Amino acid sequence: MSIENVEAMKQVFSRPASLNAVQTHFCPGCQHGVIHRLVAQAMDAFDIQAQTIGVASVGCSVFLYGYFGIDVIEAPHGRAPAVATGAKRVHPQRPVFTYQGDGDLAAIGTSEIIHCANRGEPITVIFVNNTTYGMTGGQMAPTTLPSQKTSTSPYGRNTSKDGYPIRMTELLAGLEGTAYAARVAVDTPQHVLQAGKAIKKAFQTQLRDNGFGFVEVLSTCPTNWGMNPVDANARVAEEMIPYFPLGVFKDAAAQGE
Amino acid sequence: MTKRLFVKGNEAVAMGALEAGCRYYFGYPITPQSDIPEYIAREMPALGGEFIQAESEIASINMLLGASACGARAMTSSSSPGISLKQEGISYMAGSECPGLIVNICRSGPGLGGIDASQADYFQATKGGGHGGYHLIVLAPSSVQEMYDLTMLAFDLSDRYRVPAMILADAVIGQMKEALEPHPYVAPDDLQPKDWALIGPGERGVNKVVKSLYLGDGELEQHNLKLHRKYAEMQEKEVRYEGYELDDAELVVTAYGSTARIAHTAVRMARQQGYKVGLLRPITLFPFPKEAYKHHTAAGQKVLCVELNTGQMVDDVRLAVPCVEVEFYGRAPGAGSLPTPEELFAQIRLHCEVRS
User: Fold this and answer.
1) B282-295 residue pLDDT tens
2) How many distinct structural domains can be found in chain A?
3) In a domain, A106, yes or no
4) Residue A134 falls within a domain, yes or no?
5) Residues of B in contact with A62 (CB under 8 A)
6) Is residue A4 part of a domain?
7) Which of B72, B85, B24 lies closest to B210 in space, CA to CA?
8) In this structure, what CATH number is given to the domain that contains residue A53?
9) How large is the ipTM?
10) B154-211 pLDDT, tens per residue?
């Protein structure tokens, strides 16, 4: 290869500008890194990084202020949608998003997310569902699958006593205030591309239509699942997607067109 | 001539807040404070601000956290059981150094208790309330006028120190009507711009974070020491109290808020009959007027602390003047337990003799 050819090479892959050049603290095989990247790509696509205010939740995602080059408020456990509401009312012209795990959003924060969506707050919510509490060591989450063993469901989730995994996207899609609701996964290249589009759409919903956009991302937690990253990734398709089907469950803008 | 209005204490809080430039209110209905959100819901649209009736007390305090982190002058209000629910968010605001106003128009408890006046939330208000060892600025109005004035002051102090502020009143002060002379808000000269507030990183290239999580070695200890230095500075600079007939008083009656009004009448009755008695009324419950107690009991006077609870502020009085005899008279809050002036006068006579 000649020098001339090297100069003619085109860069086709790089770190999104909205992501900081740092190593993450995430475990090997964890998909938060991929999801962070997709969120950063969406911010890059709309060129909004400089205006964006993120709301970090409690859990593995709390350190997002170390990874994104944006301003961040750290919310109490489950309260990110309420904190984001306060921020958005003060700065209606600035993009505001929350990034929450399943324990945060679907258990302790159920009230906040439902009413935030119902008010139609023009914010974007990224909801990472890995069927467990990651940061605290793998306890049963509201999204833990039937019979799934966790440290607090050591005999498997017993639906007659523990209830059923909650499908948040379907639940929120049923609210008038929700403008966009989708569930995606990042276990295959095709799914990653679809997830990227959905996340962009959820930001577009806020920026263009002044509506509430919600994306649930199915994700792995190899450490707490007791799996290697490859097996954990395979579990997404084998066990999670059958219970948590992928797709766009509401797109008010498209329905209106 | 100054305009005088005949309004409720709760309305005076709302008027003072709007006059002080508060344009964001987040709350949830609860007796006996609902006049505050009702007033603000009516007046805020014309001022271009935001009023949200939240789904819960928890959501409303977190909306306040979000608005405050973005630099807005913002508030919430509630009453005792609702303030209990807000404690998580208040602790986060304290830890994140978010200013903001929390109004507690107390009702009696514990639990659902009753809707009558109470001073049983003194400990909760002045000792932190939530987890983690922090303090709020706590102001205790005892008139409708003070509900207006101290609401403005609370915003200023809260912004100056980046410490959340609480107005601690009760059903008596919130629900009663008396004359109010509204006056324009004048911002203190020394208020700094909120350069810590979030607006998006913009061109500065460095992102700002409003947070309370500190995991590095020594980080949280340093953060806590910083908070406590602010509390110490407030103790030096921001104490406020009112003295009445204290100069030659042999018995110093002390009370705040609603009971201070009753005690004031009792002290006046006692003076008319020759008792050398005065009233020391703390206006700031945190910072607590420790030096005022020392100053006014220097010649060996006794103190009689009167509260609408079974004894809370009296602990702080005893700590302030450990060598002084401090008596306590309290009524446990609930319907019918508000003491009468005659009742307090009888207490004064127990601890003070006529010597004129």
Assistant:
1) 999 999 999 999 99
2) 1
3) yes
4) yes
5) 213
6) no
7) B72
8) 3.40.50.970
9) 0.95
10) 999 999 999 999 999 999 999 999 999 999 999 999 999 999 999 988 867 778 999 9
